[in-house]
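pinging the channel bc i need a second pair of eyes. not urgent but kinda urgent?? the chain im working w is below, pasted from the shared doc
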Amino acid sequence: MREIYLKEFKPESWANMVQIYQERYDQVDPAVRAKVAKSEIPKEIQIVLLPDMGEYLLTWMDRKVPALGHETPSDYLKSEEGTKALKAAILRMPR
């Protein structure tokens, strides 16, 4: 799955998504933002996912996800290519 997502990754699409979600992220409870900020989840991924997932984001990062080839999002973050692939997968997530 990583290879498929990596081929789809477009930095400009990701940047647009981060920009769109920034305002919603700013409205998330500051205590929740602070708790998630202590994790190793990249800030841009926090901005896009935290408004919809809340604290569940911390659990989701360590769950095997079928759409990620039954790997965890945290596994994807172990490399630059994996991080790009995860971002592409996030762009595909229904909203």
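so The helical segments are 2-8, 11-26, 30-37, 43-53, 56-60, 73-76, 80-92. and Residues 11-26 form the longest helix (16 residues). — does that match what u expected or am i reading it wrong
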